[in-house]
Design brief:
Blueprint (H helix, E strand, L loop, with lengths): L3 H10 L5 E5 L18 H4 L2 H4 L2 H10 L1 H17 L4 H11 L3 E6 L5 H4 L5 E3 L2 E8 L5 E3 L2 H13 L4 H11 L9 E5 L8 H12 L3 E5 L11 H7 L3 E6 L11 E4 L2 H11 L4
Parallel strand pairs: 1-2, 1-7, 2-3, 7-8, 8-9
Antiparallel strand pairs: 4-5, 4-6
Helix pairs in contact: 4-5, 5-8, 6-12, 8-9
2'-O-acetyl adenosine-5-diphosphoribose (OAD) binds next to α12.
């Protein structure tokens, strides 16, 4: 539930074009996608030192194809099942009403886009897209195609050669000759420059930055709230636990994003 002082702040300050959001895995928790860190998180089951690095994934293909196959199947099975929850939908309404100007997201699950939200800045890419490693040409990976791929990965997971054959089919060569790969940012990789520039531009003149469902431990995303605060924005956190930057937030609303955001919508008279 939104505390009284935050309610007053929301009612008095959520004006047209005033709000920018920075979202993380927590906003998608009620869509059935587990967060990365903490109990039950993806990184509890899969060691990020291996599964979050490009070198780790390549070495798995060579030495432990079943490990890579299980990861691909687990990851995509959750993503293709997930649908936007009331938190995603509330942000889309707030954008439509002109309150939310933009959502900067670390999520690769495409749920903001699926909710109808238009101004999404993808800091870590999108798992429903593949990208040429040389010329950056992109192709959308449709849900049915991913489903087909996961089925084939499951059947062929015990053979490195067969698995490689399946992956080559779904991550084809580009007309430039190089291969496509999943269009997400892995650890140690640079963020897409265009997305980062757009994020800074949004934060240059926003009056409120909503931090929704993110632990704020991964940089450079975690530096964005500081950047906004230095430029005068108020920081409001919506999280069911404290984040790394809770201390510097002006308002903290403890709870699930899928419940707090619809409540804010009602408060503003848009529900
Ligand atoms: P984390 O898993 O680090 O943090 C999730 C945050 O969501 C935590 O602060 C939780 O307390 C909070 N949370 C959980 N359920 C919630 C709910 N229902 N409502 C509101 N908050 C909730 O995920 P991120 O901060 O998104 O990067 O992680 C950042 C990056 O680290 C990810 O983009 C990914 C990961 O490794 C890459 O893969 C490059």
């Amino acid at each position: 539930m939104i505390p009284k002082e935050s309610k007053d702040f929301i009612k008095n300050n959520f004006k047209k074009e005033s709000v920018v959001c920075l979202t993380g895995a927590g906003i998608s928790a009620e869509s059935g996608i587990p967060v990365f860190r903490g109990k039950g998180g993806l990184w509890e089951k899969y060691d990020p030192q291996i599964y979050a690095y490009p070198e780790g994934l390549i070495s798995l293909l060579r030495t432990q194809p079943q490990g890579l196959a299980n990861f691909i199947v687990d990851f995509y099975t959750l993503l293709i099942k997930a649908r936007p929850n009331p938190g995603h939908l509330a942000l889309a309404v707030l954008e439509k009403e002109g309150i939310v100007r933009s959502v900067i997201t670390q999520n690769v699950d495409n749920l903001h886009q699926a909710s109808g939200l238009r101004s999404v800045i993808e800091l870590h890419g999108n798992a429903f897209r593949i990208k040429c490693m040389e010329c950056s040409h992109t192709i959308v990976l449709e849900r049915d195609r991913i489903k087909e791929m996961t089925e084939l990965v499951k059947i062929n997971k015990d053979s490195r050669i067969k698995l490689l054959k399946v992956l080559s089919r779904y991550f084809p060569r580009c007309s430039c000759g190089a291969r496509h790969r999943i269009d997400i940012v892995l650890f140690g990789e640079m963020l897409p420059e265009e997305a980062l520039t757009s994020a800074y531009k949004q934060l240059d003149n926003c009056s409120i930055l909503l931090l929704i469902g993110t632990s704020l431990v991964v940089y450079p995303a975690a530096s964005l709230p500081l950047y906004a605060k230095e430029r005068g924005a108020k920081l409001i956190e919506i999280n069911n636990e404290p984040s790394m930057l809770s201390e510097i937030c002006d308002y903290k609303i403890t709870g699930k994003a899928s419940e707090i955001l619809p409540e804010a919508l009602t408060l503003l008279g848009y529900a």
